[in-house]
């Protein structure tokens, strides 16, 4: 499989075809997930071959946004199935990649170890220093697409989301879960203030 050619193809496609209203799901998010996959593969001792499959999944996981946000995981699998064969990926490899893409659908539902790594890479920011900055871009994106319109609703959604989310890999349970818990506590305090009004 020619990973580098596939990477060049999909990054070019994302760059030229993604909406500029995707403040969160833009190409910067795809690159962030790709970088995090590399980190997790190193820490979790993933084989070089499986790392290539994971990195390909990272590059394609939100490509469905080119078409539309609804069911974008399924659409991204369609894009992967259409284009990856010409880069030497076998049907079996593509199905494994699509499994990783589908696992990121919220609520996340990984069925194996590689899918768990993919899920943790996709939501790595939940336990990072840039949590509030990245969260704000998602708020802005949801606002732009009229999914929600105010910060109170957004903070309530975030509390609910963090309460129901768990990291899967031992790496992220160690390095991200404690900070994520801190953010959850902070957001709970903010939401508690709304109740007092």
Task: Describe the protein.
This protein is an all-alpha fold. The chain is built from ten helices and no strands.
Q: What distinguishing features does this structure have?
A:
single chain; 197 residues; mainly alpha; Catalytic domain of cyclic nucleotide phosphodiesterase 4b2b; 0% strand; globular
SSE ordering: HHHHHHHHHH
- Name the average pLDDT: 97
CATH class: Mainly Alpha
Query: Mind summarizing the main beta sheet?
Result: none
Topology summary:
Layout: H1 3-17, H2 27-43, H3 48-60, H4 72-83, H5 91-103, H6 113-122, H7 131-144, H8 151-164, H9 170-175, H10 177-196
Helix pairs in contact: 1-3, 2-3, 2-6, 3-5, 3-6, 4-5, 5-6, 8-10
Task: Describe the structure concisely for a colleague.
With 197 residues, the chain is an all-alpha fold. The protein contains ten helices and no strands.
